[in-house]
Amino acid sequence: DKGGWSSFMAKEISEEPEALEATLLGRVHDGLVVLDEIEGGFPDDVLRGVDRIVLLGAGTAAYSGLLGKYAIEKWAGVPVEVELAHEFRYRDPVLSEHTLVASISQSGETMDTLMAVKYARERGARTLSICNTQGATIARESDAVLYTRAGPEVAVASTKAFTAQVVALYLFGLHLGRVRGALSDADSRGLVAELQALPAKLQEVLAQGGEVREMARQMSDTRSVLFLGRHVGYPVALEGALKLKELAYIHAEGFAAGELKHGPIALIEPGQRVFVVVPSPRDSNSLHPKVVSNIQEIRARGAYVLAVAEAGDVAVLPFADEVLRIPLAGPMFEPLLAVAPLQQFAMELAAAKGLDVDQPRNLAKSVTVE
Ligand code: M6R
């Protein structure tokens, strides 16, 4: 039941704030993350002995994994690799009992991911499943499960499951950081509070849906869109591009903004549409001026720039053709806000082209064959 929405995708995007809330529910006590449910497979002493984490998934799930990498390395100080599940098991990955392999899957039935989990297990790694479907095969094949609680996702394009996966990975990173003594309780509490503030902020972002629709309608004959982001904005750029490909059948690529001058800038010609996910100007890594200068570089070559930028960021105004705003959030949490307009954009562009938003051509919701 679409509940009055024009598509399941529209409904599921609107449910993102509750998906985040539900994924946090019962997992925060006294301002700190408590993940009792993974203790069977991953007691604290096992978590303290982990020397490497491999995150596996396909498509959108792999992009949530990329965000998990930034967070887990920062908060827990453990090296993290993200790998496409279908690549992982066809090479000879180095695994040991100290390797934690975490799979990410909405359906929990993706064959590529399932086979990779089995492969990792056979080679002695411990496996954690981040899954949205209760009792799914991948969950049953893993040593422990951390469920995302996004609720059923019907549209082929993943939206609320993605944001819930990121939250689950962040919860895991916060838990690991504290168990390993890498994060103080005070720092943990601050980060948990940021997480808890997200649903309301996301609601604000989603309220700009009308603006995004207008933008998409004006671009319905566009043949190519590029997406740029840096640091945690980079996975957002990849995800924005994937959404546009799968829904609107438009050629779209996501790039790390720092990579521009190493090749992709050659693609820029007058009228090329480019979304840029702009980091906060308050960001202490000072990536903001670097991304603003990327915008200037592509603008000078005729690009039409659509910026997703923090409220109050005036530095982008002289160079961006259109600006979508996101509320202030800590640097690690911006992607959970910035991805929503890109999801909406892909959906609206597909709708403007008269395409089936929920069931794009050639795709299945869950890929249960290799
Ligand atoms: O069910 P899963 O999360 O394992 O599915 C993985 C991918 O097939 C899935 O995310 C796919 O990329 C979506 N169609 C993206 O919107």
From TrEMBL:
Domain SIS: 42-182, 215-360
Recorded catalytic activity of this chain's protein: D-fructose 6-phosphate + L-glutamine = D-glucosamine 6-phosphate + L-glutamate
Keyword Cytoplasm listed: yes
Domain of life from the UniProt record: Bacteria
Localisation: Cytoplasm
Function statement: Catalyzes the first step in hexosamine metabolism, converting fructose-6P into glucosamine-6P using glutamine as a nitrogen source.
Identification of the protein by name: Glutamine--fructose-6-phosphate aminotransferase [isomerizing]
Originating species: Amnibacterium endophyticum
Lineage: Bacteria, Bacillati, Actinomycetota, Actinomycetes, Micrococcales
